[in-house]
Amino acid sequence: MPILEGQGVTKYFGGLAAVSNVDFHVDQGEIVGLIGPNGAGKTTLFNLISAALPVNSGEIKFKGERLNGLKPHQICRMGVSRTFQETKVFSNMSVLQNVLVGAFFGTPTRVSGAAAASEATQALGFVGLSAMSATPIKDLTLVNQKRVEVARALATKPELLLLDELMAGLNPAEVSEAMELVTRIRDKGITILMVEHVMRAIMGICGRIIVLHHGEKIAEGTCNEISCNKTVIDIYLGEETRAGS
Amino acid sequence: MKKMGLIQLFRRNRKLLWAGFLALILIFVITFPLYGGPYNVTVLTYVLLYVVLAVSWAMFSGTTGYMSLAPAAFVGLGIYSMAILQRQLPFPVIIVVGGLVSFAFALLIGLVTLRLRGIYFAIFTFGLVIFLSELIQYLETTIRGAHGWAIIPMSYTMLLYTALGLAVVTVLAIYFLRRSRYGLAMLSIGGNEEAAAHMGINTTMVKVLGFAISSMFMGIAGVLLAPELIYINTNIAFSTIYSFMPILMAVFGGMGTLYGPVVGAVVFAYLETMIRNEFPRYFLPGFGITLVVVILFLPTGIAGLMPVLRERLGRLRAKLWKGGQAEQHANT
Prior knowledge:
The complex is a heterodimer of chains A (245) and B (332). Chain A is built from nine helices and ten strands. Chain A has helices at residues 42-49, 72-78, 95-105, 113-126, 142-155, 172-187, 199-205, 223-228, 230-237, and strands at residues 2-13, 16-27, 31-35, 57-62, 65-66, 80-82, 160-164, 191-195, 208-213, 216-221. A six-stranded mixed beta sheet of chain A has the order 6-7-8-3-9-10, sandwiched between helices. A four-stranded antiparallel beta sheet of chain A has the order 2-1-4-5, covered by helices on one side. In chain A, 49% of the residues are buried. The model of chain B has no long low-confidence stretch (mean pLDDT 87). Chain B has one domain: ABC transporter involved in vitamin B12 uptake, BtuC. Helices cover 83% and strands 1% of the residues of chain B.
């Protein structure tokens, strides 16, 4: 049974269909990649799932429950957490406090102070930032801020994690580390839907790929199917697919 | 050697020393009517009420980043609660009513306006002060047929002790609030509101409740302020100075800490009453210049200066310590 399901999901910005009649599903335990050219509607789709924006029509279901009409904080407490394309950290706090926010508020039940602290410490350890827990978040590099975002999302104990361009702006070594991190998250039993432009990462870890273009879903399939798909090559990947590299 | 011992003692027993320091202040305020004289007791009451205003303003606006220019609206509501009810109800009940009226009104206003961000929220809250002032003046003249109220004077000692009680309750409440998960939620809204919502925080609720709690303290402060004013009308009760002074005090003292606004309030409320009496002409320009200087050179306020001073002091001490050792060597 799919953990996340969308049917006829549509979002207009004025007259522009940013996401148009998209059907999709994500199964439990999968890593699904969401790719497409800039402006294809990938982040908009994330914003629709996490309720940052309301859908115009269609419905999104998480574990069989309709998400339409819910508020972002309710979505998060149901078990869907996310990171942001442009990092949105709590700039006035330390690294640990950032993660604590997720641990305190992201779960449906009230968490005690001690439990939240241990959850946050654990999440920071998981992304490899234990040593920096007391540092003001502003002093961290972009890569590490992105890791804090992941830790913060993990501290909400999600079942589904939406990663929005986690690898953008990372160097090849950092991309490899991030890929390893994403795989480890999946191994914890968390399902992942990720928007990404780094094809090496997409092809390396995703079990399935969904391709958006001008708000429409133009293809869906395994990495091999997508990298051989004529339309996807024409629109997005280009002739010399670097999928293998 | 003895000096170093003292410093270490201070480091180890910081909490104890803080408690002692606070106890001394309490004793000072409580015994003040015995030797202070009526005028100075009134000034001290004034200082305490401004502490309440500055601390409760910083509690909401300093953490969430929503700059409220509305303190005057809630102070005014408090003053008017006192003016209208003083002959009907006992003083403690009016205090409760003043707080509740402000709380309820802030709740209502918050639900409507806290979706406004940044400068729009600030402008709205400023308009609110003027709106309330005009509305009450209109009601006053149509229903009562007269403008303004005389306030029955009260025992200045009793007012001082009530103000002290309010200040202690406010500071304690906000101390615990800041350390609670609720304080963390407000801080996260100031850090990045969108992310806060996506991390499971009901941002609307947190903002509205925070705004209402801070307004409640302001309303009560207004009730206590009324008797000192003797005569009030809407221009006096809703004076914009009650909006700007707490902000100035909090900025001057530093909004990031609890003691910052307290220090700012004490300094400015005292200066205000003194300068107003001695040099009334230079009062407002003086404030303007101070605010500009503070924002330019001390953006984090007096509280932000503390770590720097501490470090300098530490270096100086290390230097002196070394010098002392060298001298000892020379002597032997």
